[in-house]
Each structure stands twice: as C-alpha cells, then as structure tokens.
Amino acid sequence: MGWFGASIKRKEDPAFLTGRGRYVDDIALPGMLHAVVLRSPHGHAAIRSIDKRAALNLPGVHAVFIHTDLPESMQRQTVPLLVPSPTIKQALMPYCLAKDEVCFVGEPIAIVVADSRYIAEDAAALVEIDFEPLPAVSDCAQGLKPGAPPVHRGSPNNLGAFIPINVGNADAAFAQAAHVFREQIFQHRGGPFFMECRGMIAVPDVVSDTLTIYVSSQGPHRHKRVLLDLMEWADHQLRIVTPDVGGGFGPKGSFYAEYGALAAAALAMRRPIKWIEDRHENFLSTQQERDQYWDVEIAVDAEARILALRGTLTHDAGAYLPWGVVLPWIAATSVPGPYVIRNFHLDVSVAFTNKVPTSPVRGAGRPEAAVVMERLMDRVARELKLDRAEVRRRNFITPEQMPYKVGIIFRDGRPVTYDSGDYPVCQRDALAAVDYEGFHARQAKAREEGRYIGLGIGNAVEATGLGPYESATVRVSTSGKLTVYTGATPQGQSHKTTLAQISADHFGCTPDDITIVTGDTAATGLGVGSFAARTAVNAGSSVHLASAQVAQKIKQFAAQMMEVAEQDVVLENGYAKVAGSDVKRSFREVAAVAVGMPGFSMAGGPSPGLEATSHFTPDQSTYSNGTHIAEVEVDIETGQVTVTRYLVMHDCGTVINPMVVEGQIVGGVIHGVGNAFFERLIYDDQAQPVSTHFGEYLLPLATDSPSVEVLHMETPSPLNPLGLKGAGEGGTIAAIAALLSAVENALEPFGVHIAEAPITPQRIVELLGEHALGRTR
Questions:
Q1: Angle formed at CA 341 by CA 733 and CA 460, multiple of 5 degrees
Q2: What would the 3-class secondary structure string for 562-608 be?
Q3: What is the CA radius of gyration of the chain?
Q4: Could you tell me the CA-to-CA distances from 479 to 228, 436, 592 in Å, in that order?
Q5: Local structure of residue 724 (DSSP, 8 states)
Q6: Do the Cβ atoms of 417 and 719 come closer than 8 Å?
Q7: Which of 77, 261, 410, 755 is the most buried (most CB within 10 A)?
Q8: What is the spatial distance between Cα 450 and Cα 637, in angstroms, rounded to a whole number?
C-alpha cells in the first residue's frame, strides 16, 4: 500500500493549468444552433396566450418551442419526482415548459433557437405573452397561515409535506427538567453560485434515432433516467456525458425542466443545440437552499446535561419539490449532532412559496442543524454560567457507546447509527491547538484596549457515503493500459487522483499509469453521481474491490503463462513477475491471452478478460465528524467582522490523500464564511428577487477568507473495506455555527444575542443599537 494515504499532486491539474480543461461551453459542433430559455417575469401568474410570430420573423431564428410544441409524452407529464416520500402531501413538479401557469420568477416558458445566442436573445424579447398576475407567496411561514393565497392554482393549501420526528418522550422529560431554554432562529436563503453556470448540448443522430447530451451535472445517470421517462425511450437511445464541471455544490445534481425541452427541441430540429446559462439566469432559476424558521426548546438537568429537545421547523421548498423532502429531512435529523439526546421531538412543515425551488447545497441542511444545536449549547452555558466547552463535553457521545443508535430514521429509511468517532478527543485536541485555556486572558486584554475579540466552537456529525451504490469497472486493455470507469462525477473534488491512488496499489504501478473515466452513461451502465460526500466511500470501495479482482486475474493468467504458482506472482510497473527472479510478462501480454484466441477453448481457466465491475452497496451511512474553532474581531462602530484564526479538527476515517482532504475542508469553511456573513437572496412581498447579481449578493473574497488550519483524526469506519468516511462537506457544516458563536462571544459585553444567519455588518450595528436602546429605556 504505497500510494493510499499519500499527499500526491492532483492528476487533474496539468490540464486545467494549461487551459486544456473541457467544459460544456468549450464544445463546438458542426451545424450547432443556440438556445435561449424565455423565463417568467412573475412570481405567480396564469398564461392566457403566447404569440411567437414576431420572434419567428426575425432573421436567423429557427424555432420557438412552447409547451404545446413538445412531444406528447412531455405535454402529458411533469418532470418525475425521483425521491418520493409518504410525508409528501402535494407532489408538485414542473412541466418541461410552463403549461398554463408560472409559479416563480425564472420558470421556463419557451425555448428560442437561433443561429447565435445574440439573435436568440433578441427574438426572446419579441415573444408576446399575455399574463394574468396572481397573488404570490414570498414567506414560507406566512404561506402556511389560513387565508394565504395558493402558490399553485387549485391547491388546497401551501403545505408540501409534514414530517413528525419523535424519539422517546420529550414532553415528560421537559416536565422534570431543572432548566428550559427557548430559541427562535431564522436562517436565510442562499445559492450555490459555482464558477461555471449550468449548460447543456443536445446532439441528435437522425440515422440511429438516438440522442447524446453533454451537460454540466453531478449525476448523468439520474439525468438519463428522467429523460428516458419523459421521452418514453429505450435505454440504448440516450447517452449522457458530463465533461469537466466548474463547481456543483448540489444543485447541479438536479434535473431541470428546461433540459427536457432542450432535448425535444434538438430532436425536432435534427441539429445540435447548445444552451449556456448566463449569470442572471443563474440567480433566477438555479435551485437554492433554505429559508428556515426554527422554534426550539432545550431541557437540561442541574448539571447541564440534555434531557430533551423539542420544537418546530418551517422549511421553504420554493415552488416545487425537485428533491422531495430530502433537504428538510436531513436538517431535522441532523440536529442531535455529537450529543446524547434521549428525547427529541420536531415537527417539520415543508411549505411551498413562489420562489426558486430549494434543494441541497453543500452541507444539505446539516449546517442549519448545527447552527440550531450549537446555539442551544451556547445558550445553556450562558444561562448556567458554565464554560461553553465544558457543557459540550458533558453531553458528548463517547467512543464506548459506538455504534451509537440515535433513535432517528434518516432520509434513506434506515435508523441513524453512528459507526465510529471520538467526539470528546476531537474537541479536546482542537481546543488545545488554539490555546483555549489562554483565550480568556487574551480577550480581557483586548477589551482593555477597546478591541472586541471572540471565540466560537462548532461541533457536527455528518452522514456520508449515502447509498444505494456507486459503480466502478476496472479494465486492462490489450494494449496493457489500465482504465477505471465510474459513475462518480467530479466537480473539483480530485476523484481522478484519489480513485487512481486506491487502484494503483493493487497493480504495483503509479496513479499516473491509470486513466479514470467519469460521468459517461455509455462507459458505465449504472451510476448514481457525486453528492453528499459519498464518492470516497462508495466509488472508492468499488474501485478497491474491482481492482483487487482484476489484479488477481492478472496473477492467475500470468501464473499459467509462466508455469509457476499463483502466489509467486507479484505485480510491478506494468509487469507480472515471478518473485525473486527476472521472469515476467507484461500486462499487455497477459491481457492478450486473457481475451482468448478465435477458435480456441478457454474452458476450465479463469473467466475471459482482465475486467471486473463492482457496485459497493453500503448497509448504512458512515459518519464523519469535526470540531471547528473560530476566532474573530468585531469593529463595534462598523459591524465589520475579521476572522483572525480558524482551526478544524476533522475525522473522515482513513484518509486517502491528506492534501485533497485539506483542500475540501478549506473550501468548505470559506463556503461557511459566506453563509455566516455575506450571502442573502432577498425577495419582495410578491416573490420578486431583489438580489440578482454579485453587486447585491455578496460572496467572500480572498480578503474575507481566513487561513484555515486543518488537523486530521482517523477513526476508521467498520462499514467498508477501506475504513473510509466522506470529507466533501465537513468544512461547511459546523462553520456557520462556530462563526456566529464567535461573534456573539466578542459582543458579550453588550448583551447581543445572535439567532439568525447571515449576520451582516449592518445587522450587527442594528443589534448593538437595539441593546443600547434597551438599556436607556
């Protein structure tokens, strides 16, 4: 095992650094036309009529597609819901193009196809649509009140789903509690805002009646499944390819309604059609995450040990349910985190609004859950005048309790059972690394100087490695080349490096000797895609198992060729060698024998070919964990927050490549900085988006981003052959909680309490002013 565990350089970087990355918009095909998606300007409206004559008369325009121009199968059915749940009350999904009603600003109404994007844009402005504006719902809590206007005409109410979560007897525990504290927390809507916007090219083959689609996505196999349903096609008629992807963060895993319409347009035109989302569209139509209203209570005994937690969560689904109730379910079930909570009751209401649909963004509800739990822990410490770290220590699940049954059912229908981890040591070592014991003295000295510094703690547990499986086929071609094919679809996570590291150790070669092929439904028939920190566990385990099988087959064939015992064969640098001698056969020679010779029997020997496929199927999630420590300084005059130090102690089980894990953690923390301090997607009371560009929606710059220190723990998971856990989201999950805690700690002399995210400089000044006003009264 020479490569597994090493911080080797990424295989992906040479192409990216030399401009040889290949994204959807880099693809140019003969005869290709360009499309623009005409989107709704209204939060809610009926469509009375559409007149496309003026647009069609513009030179260079080839077609304008509306709902009635789509194939019958697309007119008849909405986009399929891939993740149904019995908790869903109204399984509302969009048509590929709006039929007679639009339910959010940005909903696709028409596809304009022209010689160029510029002409298509001009033509889209000429399409005349007669709208009947309807009342819109902008706030999810208001939308659930009696008398609220319906988000969809004909709906009895705006309740999309109701999820009751109940463990133990929370009410009985509250009745005997020494202390009860309540928090009302609001977490604001934000977006993914990747560097590369969404994009798609549909390429019909009129000879074979097939379609190839290039799409910037996180799961081409799921896209294929949806399109096959919408088009009522056979499997062989559709191929989905995902080239390089410039960021995904979750929403690129969804199938969007316009994808179906674009596919239909290409088939009708019998020519390739390209659509590239511009940044304005990205703000209007790419799925977002949250809003969430939490109203929760915590019950503790006299020693600050948690007896129970109960409350409600109101979650904004937007206009449709593209991921069912996955997001609110994860948020709700992640609340306990690393703490022992025997009694837990949470009623989750999923509300429709006339806004962009919500789906998982990096962290997928877990950051919101961590904010709630960690705010409660800080509240208990403050009220009982105890050290914040000590309150957490008293409530940690211990290694001796592993595997620990939380008592909650997760989104996959399985009980939440933590497989391994040492939460007390994780926090202890993180605090020691930042000299927590000395912080109070540093804080007191800073206050004497008129400076306000604070330290925040965030702990979180993350379900990773979600099923159902991920595919991997390992093949040695007759040229001797090693290739791994997988359904995993990277968007910057270094899959081609880490999967090659796993495979290389089986073959005695370097990772550079192995080609990793991802995101092509023609290369591997089954796949799920990359999301929810699942690739290392599932694809990694599949690559490990398939590589072991192929390596064994090489030894079997080579042993016969060299007339030695199989156990005497070792693999090294592209050769099968007899240990301790110069006798060897190249992989190329072995592969030629393994595929057989026409007319000659291979009966009685190994099965033909140097190839194996594995679909590692986890029994349950593996659980990563981490402790985040944030130190900040707050300017009380301007509200400006400077993150002066940030440390993460992270445990993702056995580490494949420490450098890659560190990169994922650092990127996740910066994502959390944006969520905590900057990112606000504001809508007015008619569900019109107000934040529609980066002048109004702020992202953290390099000057806002701390230098993140990453320390590794390794408690291997017993649930997969390599002891792996996911690492893609761990940097984000506890970040918001730690940063809010640090700001509140800095402002402790002013009595400021923070129960919202993000917390902007303006809002900090407002909170300081409210406290000052309260004191004068």
A1: 15
A2: HCCCHHHEEEECCEEEECCCCCEEEHHHHHHHHCCCCCCCCCCCCCC
A3: 28
A4: 35, 58, 8
A5: B
A6: no
A7: 261
A8: 11
SS3 label, residue 331: helix
Q: Which two tokens stand for residue 694?
A: 């980066």
Helices (H) and strands (E) in the chain, counts: 21, 29
Closest by CA position to 675, among listed 698, 693, 692, 695: 698
Strands (E), 326-449: 344-352, 404-409, 415-418
Nearest to 438 by CA among 246, 276, 645: 645
Quick one: what percent of the chain has pLDDT higher than 90?
87
Q: Which helix (H) or strand (E) holds 430?
A: helix 423-433
Structure tokens that stand for 108 in this block: 């696709």
Average pLDDT over the chain, rounded to whole?
94
CA distance 630 to 324: 34
Torsion of CA 267, 271, 272, 274, to 10 degrees: -90
Q: Assign 79 to helix, strand or coil.
A: coil
Confidence of residue 777 (pLDDT cuts 50, 70, 90): very low
Tell me the C-alpha distance between 642 and 635, whole Å.
8
455/436 Cα distance (integer angstroms): 9
- Mean pLDDT across the stretch 462-483? 90
Query: How far apart (Å, rounded) are the C-alpha atoms in residues 721 and 376?
Result: 37
CB 432 within 8 A of CB 632: no
Q: Distance between CA 410 and CA 759 in Å, rounded?
A: 30
Q: Which residues contact 615 (CB under 8 A, 6 or more apart)?
A: 469, 470, 471, 472, 526, 542
Residue 182 near residue 356 (C-beta atoms within 8 A): no
Residue 464 has what DSSP assignment? E
Give CA–CA dist 198/44, Å, rounded.
24
* Three-point CA angle 445, 448, 453, nearest 5°: 60
> CA–CA separation, 113 vs 546, rounded Å?
45
When pLDDT is cut at 50, 70 and 90, the band that residue 698 belongs to is very high
Cβ contact 627:430 at 8 Å: yes
- Count the Cβ atoms, other than its own, within 10 Å of residue 165: 18
Q: Which amino acid is at 210?
A: T
Please give the structure tokens belonging to residue 686: 């008619």
- Nearest-angstrom CA–CA distance, 253 and 361: 10
| Residues of the chain by 3-state class (helix, strand, coil), percent to 5 | 30, 25, 40
Rounded mean pLDDT, 138-165:
97
Cβ-contact 3, 501 below 8 angstroms: yes
pTM above 0.90, yes or no: yes
| Cβ proximity of 187 and 291 under 8 Å | yes
pLDDT digit string (tens) for 339-382? Answer: 999 999 999 999 999 999 999 998 888 999 999 999 999 999 99
Whole-angstrom distance, CA of residue 725 vs CA of residue 621: 9
Closest-CA residue to 392 (of 376, 377, 406, 382): 377
Assess whether pLDDT exceeds 90 at residue 596: no
Task: List alpha helices for 708-760, DSSP H.
Answer: 730-733, 735-746
- Token pair recorded at residue 398: 């211990």
Please state, in angstroms and rounded to a whole number, the distance separating the CA atoms of residues 468 and 615.
Answer: 9
Q: Please tell me the distance from the alpha carbon of residue 500 to that of residue 9, in angstroms, as a whole number.
A: 12
